Amino acid sequence: MEKGLLYPVTNKFREDQKLDGLWDFKFDPAEQGEAKGWTTGFDDPIKMPVPASFNDFFTDKDSREYTGDFWYAKKFFVPTYMDGKAIQLRFGAATHRATVYVNGKEIRSHEGGFLPFTADISDAVKLGKENIVALKMNNELHRDALPAGDTATLKNGKKMAKPFFDFYNYSGLNRSVHLLAVPKENIYDYSTTYEVSDDQATVHYSVEATKDADVKVSLADEDGNVVATSEGKSGDLVVKNPTLWQVRDAYLYTIKFELIDGGKAVDEYSDEIGLRTIEIKGHEILVNHKSVYLRGFGRHEDSIYAGRAFDLNVERRDMNLMDWIGANSFRSSHYPYDEQVYKFADREGILITDEVPAVGFKMAAASFLGGLDQSFFDGDWIDELYKKHIDQVRDMIKRDKNHPSVLAWSLCNEPDTSTDSAVPYFTKLFNDSKDLDPEKRPRTFTLNEDDTFEKSKCLQFPDFYLLNRYPGWYHKWGYEISDGEAGLRAELDEWKNSDIDKPIVFSEYGADTEPGLHKLPSIMWSEEYQIELLDMFDRVFDSYDFVRGEQPWNLADFQTVEGNMRVNGNKKGIFTRDRQPKAAAFFLKKRWTSLPLDY
Ligand code: GCB
C-alpha cells in the first residue's frame, strides 16, 4: 500500500517535472540485466517513447508479443535548488511489475500495472548533476496476480501471455513519469466528505501530514473568491448558497491546505473538489438526493500506436464523443485509468464506476481462449492473489477518493461467484474494504452471464448490481434473438419477484460490428444488427424500474488477443478504434439525449 498518492503539483513548495520523452529500452529474455550491470544503463538501447506500450511500435511479432523481463532507463538532471527537499520519482503505471534503480542503487519494487507508485530517491541522487534511473520490468501474467492469466513457454523457448480476459496485454511505462521535489515535512493525503442542502453545503475534511503541525484550510469558488476557511487537521468548511457539482453540470471549488510549522508555512497542496453527495436508496442511485439514470459505456484505455498509454488527445476526443451522444457515466473497465481521466470527468460532470484490475477471476472465462474447467476460487493461488487484490483496492481508493466524478467502486469484473469457495473470498474483500472510502461510496462487482440470480452465491455483497449480459451475441444470436430477449426478461422477472430492492445497471451488452458492413435484413456483424440488439435491450430496460443504467460494451473498438472469435480486436465499439461513429452511435444519441436525467 502506498502512503500517499496525491497527484503531483508545482507550487511555491513543490516542484513537478515530467520525465516523459524517449527512454532507453531493452528486452531481457535471459534475465541477466542485473548481472550485466543494466542498473546503471545499457548499450545498444531501443529508443522508446514514454508514456507508451512498447508492443505496437514493433514490426516483428517476437517483439510485439514479448513476455518476460525488459528494461527502461533515462538520464535526468537534479537541480541544486532541490537540496533539502524529499526527491521522488513517481510512476503513473508500470505494467505489471517494476524494480527501480537510481545510479545503480535499488530503491524499491512495485507490482500492479495500473496504479501509481512513488520512489524516494533523495539518498541516491547527486544534486546539480546528471543521474540515471533504470527500471527492470516484467509483464508476465499469473493466476496469483492482477489481472489474472497464465504465462506459457512455447517449444521454441519464447514466453507468451495467456490472459484470462480479452484485452491485449499492452505493456510498458503506460503513464507519465514525474520527478518531484516536496518538502521533507509534507502533506501526503487528504479526504473530504459532504453534506448538501439547497442553501448550504458542508465539507468535512481531514489531512494527513508527516508532522503534527498546524493546518490552515480554505475553499475558493471558480472565480477565486474564498468562500470558507478552517484550521486544524480535520474540520468543516461551511458554504452558504453553494453551487453543487451536478451530473453533466459540474462546478469545482479549489480546496487549499497549508502546513504551518513554528508559525511558518512549510507545505501547501491544492486540489479541485465538487460539492455533492452520493447514495443508494432502494433501487435508486441518488446524486445530491436526486435520482440518476446512468447512460454511458464500458471503456478501455486503448488506441493505435501507443496501445494502453494515456493519451490526452484520445481522452479529449472520447469526452467529446460522450458529450455528443448524451452519456453521463462510464466504468473504468477493467482497471483504474490515468488520473487525468478522472480530472476530465470531474470537469465534465461524468460519473465513474472505478474498477480495480481484478479481471480474469474465472477459469472458464473467454472460452475462445480455451477456458479451463476448474473453479477459480478453489485454486492454491488464492491467498497470494487476495493480498495483491486488497492492496490494489486500497491504492485505488486512496488515489481516487477525492474525485467528485467517482460514483462507486467495482471490486472485480466477472468473478466466478457460482461456487461456494467464492463466498469467503468476497466476505473478506467486502469486509476489508468497507472503511477505506471516507465517503462510503457503493461497492460492487460485475456479474457474468453465468452468474445469474439463481446461480450466483454472492448476491449479498454488492450495494448495487452490475450485469454483463450477452444474449443476441454469445448465445441466442441472429434470428434467435427473440429467445434471447425472453431469457433476459425471465431473469429480470426473478430479480423483480425477489425481496432484493437494489439498483441494477447493465454494465455490458453488445454485438461485434464491422464498420461499413450493411445488410438488409440484418445479419450478425452488420451495423443493422448492432442497432437491433441495442434496441432489444432498451425495450427490456424500459420494462423494469429497478434497471437504473445502461452501459453498452464498448465506447470504442479495442485491441485484443488473437483468436478465432476476434477479427483484429473486439468490435463491439459504438465508435471505431479511431473514434468515428458506427450507425449505432446515432441510434443511442437519439435515445440518450431524450431520456430525462432521472428516467
Ligand atoms: C466480457 C468482459 C469484457 C469482454 C466482453 C466481450 O464479459 O467483461 O472484457 O471484452 O465480455 O466482448 O467478450
How would you summarize the topology of this molecule?
Blueprint: E1 15-18, E2 21-27, E3 46-50, H1 61-64, E4 69-78, E5 86-91, E6 94-95, E7 97-102, E8 105-111, E9 117-120, E10 129-138, E11 149-153, E12 159-163, E13 172-173, E14 177-182, E15 187-196, E16 200-209, E17 214-220, E18 226-231, E19 234-240, E20 253-261, E21 264-273, E22 278-281, E23 284-287, E24 290-291, E25 294-298, H2 312-325, E26 329-331, H3 339-348, E27 351-355, H4 382-400, E28 406-413, H5 422-432, E29 443-447, E30 465-468, H6 481-497, E31 504-508, H7 527-541, E32 547-550, H8 583-594
Parallel strand pairs: 25-26, 25-32, 26-27, 27-28, 28-29, 29-30, 30-31, 31-32
Antiparallel strand pairs: 1-14, 2-3, 2-4, 4-10, 5-9, 5-14, 6-13, 7-8, 7-10, 11-12, 15-16, 16-19, 17-18, 17-20, 20-21, 22-23, 23-24
Helix pairs in contact: 2-3, 6-7, 7-8
The protein binds (2S,3S,4S,5R)-3,4,5-trihydroxy-6-oxo-oxane-2-carboxylic acid.
Describe what you observe in this structure.
The protein is an alpha+beta fold and 599 residues long. The chain is built from 8 helices and 32 strands. The strands form 8 sheets. The chain has an 8-stranded parallel beta barrel with strand order 25-26-27-28-29-30-31-32. The two termini are 40 Å apart. 48% of the residues are buried.
